[in-house]
Write a structure and sequence with these properties.
Strand order of the largest sheet: 1-5-2-8
Order of helices and strands: HEEEEEHEEHHE
Strand content: 15-25%
Radius of gyration: 16 Å
Number of helices: 4
Number of strands: 8
């Protein structure tokens, strides 16, 4: 997808080159979920996003244990949010999938300097997403630390 002018892919930190593509795919998935909900007259409370090369094969347990205003990820330590798997409350999906932009306004990535300035441990999509969530006051928890 196109980046927001004047950004160019050559300026992106190497570990963020795939972020605009990955997030556009999440936007497309989100639209499909919304279309499904409308066609069936249902509304999901949660959406589980995974990378295309991953498959969720485990029971998630009692969904009532999850906090409705919190994004859950496969692993999370400050400045190291994994974007491999995201369990997102439906009301937060638009905010999450637009973290890197959209087709109308263009997509974003960070340069090496921006990545360093934002104290990213790895500089991947998860670091940009974490900053976006912090900006919007969204809490994040690891799926490994869900209370019983």
């Amino acid at each position: 997808p196109d980046l927001r002018p004047p950004l160019r892919y050559e300026q992106c930190f190497y570990d963020q080159l795939s972020c605009p593509v990955a997030w556009r795919a999440k936007q497309q998935c989100s639209r499909r979920v919304r279309d499904f909900e409308q066609s069936r007259g249902v509304a999901f409370d949660w959406v589980l996003f995974t990378r295309p090369d991953l498959e969720w094969r485990f029971p998630i347990g009692n969904i009532r244990r999850f906090e409705a205003a919190t994004l859950y990820t496969s692993s999370y330590v400050s400045y190291d949010l994994s974007d491999r798997l995201l369990l997102v409350p439906s009301k937060l999906v638009p905010l999450i999938v637009d973290a890197f932009g959209d087709d109308q306004t263009g997509y974003v990535c960070w340069s090496e300097e921006e990545t360093r300035r934002n104290k990213c441990r790895f500089g991947n999509c998860g670091c940009v997403l974490e900053q976006h969530l912090m900006l919007h006051g969204i809490s994040v928890r690891s799926l490994h630390r869900i209370p019983e």
